[in-house]
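question for whoever is on the cluster today: can someone run the full assembly for these? two chains, 1129 residues total. i dont have access anymore since they changed the login thing
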Amino acid sequence: MAEKLVGVNYAPPDLRAKITGRARYAEDFRAQGMVFMKLLLSPMPHCRVRGVDDSRARRVPGFIDIMRASEVNQPEGPTEAMLTDEPKYEGEPILAVAAESEEACAAAIEAIELDLEPLPFVLDPLQGLRPNGPNAYTEGNQFSGQDGWSTYKWTDADFAEVDAGRMPNPANPLVEWTKGDIEAGFAEATVIIEEAIVHQSVTHHPMEPRSTMAYWENGRLHAFVSTQSAQRTKMGMAGALEVDPEEITFVSEFTGGGFGSKIPGHTHMSLAPLMSRKIGRPVMHRVTRYEENYIGRARPGFQAWAKMGFRADGKCTAIDLMIVQDSGPYGAGDHNTASNIADITYTPGNMRYRGFPMYTNTPPKAAQRGPGGAQINGMLEPLIDQAARELNMDRLAIRILNAPTVEYGMGPRSQRMTSTRAKEALRLGAELFDYENKIQLSGQRNGSKVTGIGLGLSTYTAGSRGYDGLMVIRPDGKLYVYQGIGNLGTHSISDTARPAAELLGLNWDQVEIIWGDSSRGMPNSSVQAGSQTTHAHSRANYAAAQDALRKIRAIAARQLGGNANQYRVDNGRVLGPGGSMTFAQVAQRAIALGGEYDGHTLPGDLNAATVPAANMHVGTGLMGVARDNFGGEGGIYSWLAVFGLIELDVETGQFETKELVCATDVGTVVHPRSLGAQCYGGAIQGMGMAMSQRWVFDPQYGVPFANRLYTARPPSIMDAPRSMAWDAVGIPDPQTPTGAKGIGEPSVGAGSAVLTTAIADAMGGRCLCRTPLTPDLIVAELEGRPLPFGRLDQHVG
Amino acid sequence: MANMKDMIPAFDLVQPTTVEDAVDLMKDAGDEGWVLAGGLDTFDWFKDRIKRPRVVIDIGGIEEMRGFRDEAGGIEIGAMTTLTEVANHARVRSEFGVLATAAEHVATPQIRNQGTLGGNITQDTRCWYYRSGWPCYRAGGNVCYASAPLAMNREHCILGRSRCVAVNPSDTAPALIALDAKMVVQSPRRRLYDAEDYFIGPSVDITRMTVLEPGDLLTQVFVPAFWANSNFYFEKVRDRGSWDFQLVSVAAAFRMSGSTIEDARIAVNGVAPYPVRLDAVERLVRGEAASESLQNAAGELAIQGTRALRHNDYKIVMMRNLVRRAVRSVAA
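^ ran it for u. tokens below:
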């Protein structure tokens, strides 16, 4: 009998190569005659390039060529170009140089004389809202495709409120939505909590910078790219270069992380292909850590005001939320997501959201693991505790009371979800954490150390629908699953094939996963983001497996007699009333039959991008290929409840996280070990965001200093909790055949929240209401010392 | 000249195997030479293309600068001994535990495996204006960007400023001061410096952190036995659990007679351009029991004369509390 695959740990197929060092990342590839390319980065946060004198650069031995902004597409409005003559942040690429060696590239770049006109810049979005505050663009600070540029400012009266520590009421918010009756909601409240809260921006810092190697051969592009997604990134690159996607051989077998910064690849991945086309040589563009800090994206920071009303029984009755977002020079959508997640996490029924996304002259922003949600959960969870404290209510009970059920609709359009097990996750986590006893330790002091208990609840999107699965059973009897999703170490490339393999009654050693090389076939796939792939591609592969199963049974019935439905599959064989066949025999028969069996005829509803991938495998065996037509209604969201225990040293402001417990609602658990790793990894990433990771600019010169890993301070292994545990609710999502939802994202917000709440708890309920909660802030608060910056200032530390 | 980082310029590499050869090579190279120990400070400078020596003198092959030598009056540690070796050495751990503890607190295991004791105490400051290549006083310019009204100076000094407000980043330096260690310098003349005199402030020479001048080589660190097996205390406050320089650190050695502090040496780092020996605090606690009032008085005395920049007032509190805690560590 075939082994059970879903819900069982296994060794992913990319593991051995990583451990042995055989895994090849983008910068490990080489090609005959390959040269190097480096970027000249802007030294100013906003300037205009008046002139470039490259005469000395051209005399550097090994110099080959220069590419200027005029040679690449320059989109209208606040949209990033690969190179620009008006850099909008320090570190924005102005030009690229190709040379025989990287040292020659560097020497040539240093030999270039730039004539730059400094332009006004803004770092702190709130400063940009001041009546006479600077704008990120010379044309203004707001852009619409219809009306072009405009300038939006608050009034002096608005800032009088801000400076007095109150929520302002600016006219004509840039984004606004309401649901229910917010006035009635606050009128119903016994307790109203109101705070101004700051969440810093943080750089993504994936371990592998975004390098690219590319060359052209007879008009065909060969590109080796560091990206989160594969098939979708290939399509993006084709669009950027205006070439037929089928004229690209796209390779991305291994990627050292992205956290959202390489979702569809990235803007600068097309520079190496362009330079290669220009000079007729293979080009390697190795991005360094320093460059990655600038072009590698960052999570948008928030300056927010939140007002939350609670009934005497603890029910949240209203939220009034206002967020000023640091959108960088090219925009970001986090604040919108944050508003929706605030609604679904605390279910007020009555809510007003006002958003102010502001362009700034800081490095570009992009989705970062749980974008929006990761910020807002860490920011608002301490307010829930404040309410509980004022209502003399248990902190877990107030969360369970306010956590949603599937009946609650999220956001202004009241979007329903396919399944919501937030309450169950909270209860499961409480049990695993031994909450009833641990909460008794809250505030206990031992010497200079005070115990703080943290609780966090977070959610995020966890799936999507409508992609394609492609697989072939070959005459060797094995199932070959062709994946178009990327491989950034989350195991999605193989996890999503496990339910399909189980449906086909296969043992895991009878399955081969093919990924990361478009010349081997990549079906239309989701981006590797938004925690979509476990859901989206377990469905797509399941659909393909159903197609394969139907064909296997049909062949068995034709060959052996009887009704196709009477045949079952197990351990690489199909068995039924007429006897049995091996999958190897079935594959041979499929090739002989042709038509739909071996892919000569494809389903008519496939996404267009799947057809060429399927055509690569026509006649190689029995093809299972199908679009995910399982359908479904509502958003797909996963949940994570996190509990933690810290000890805060009130004399130094340092703390140690002693325990961390994660309890998650991800529907069916496909791969337990991978799920645990996502829970822990994301939670620790979020804890680092709450604790130490930072983003500091000199406000006079507009340049960042936290531009190295050791100055940016993401969390280290020594910051990981001493004890960690996880569990899953394990109730399948009813709207997907595999029952599984994704999990990459919500763990970050919950991890952040567990520290923001635990630290406030250890400080007797005082919320510092800003991150990162570094020792200096904590000590200053405990000692009653003044902070050296404004309550809502950004980019300090 | 356009900005370029993360690409080490070419240089001539020489690898002497004796101190004598190293000193000769340093003399030959003059201002164009650079001494390479573990490389943790060096390669940041090189990668940023701010320091561009013509000749790099790699002293990693000089055996006489490695390891430990037991001597009657103490222990001699080669400057090229790695921080991991210092942290793990049996005698250092048992008799001079404050040094082992300080070495354990440096950065990460990988950095401690590569970084040397000599490098850790001789490394340059990490002021980010200076390390970013800005033309400040320390870099030969005529301004301190870190003390400008809007500057980001959370990690800068509260004591000892003199045009420059950078701090010494070493973890082992205050421990060596607490142990009254001696620094052995050759150039080629052999000189001995008390640990506290090895470090200099900007008022002495704003371009250097130590007494080492071009041509000088720190070869050994001698830790005298006088403070062996004392009651030691080391603590480092930092933003995260590893790979982080101190915000403030303290190292102390106490010789006890019952519950009375017979003698003490206390040093702090992260508060001045040099590690600061707290001799006034030492005088205060000598002959006293480490009562709560003494702990508090020691803390208050330690911070006398401190002056915060815009963003580092917290360091005054932290320094006071760490000194209190050091004294508290020998309370009955």
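summary bc i know u wont read the tokens: Chain A has a mean pLDDT of 97. Residues 368-462+635-783 of chain A form a domain with the Aldehyde Oxidoreductase; domain 4 fold (CATH 3.30.365.10).
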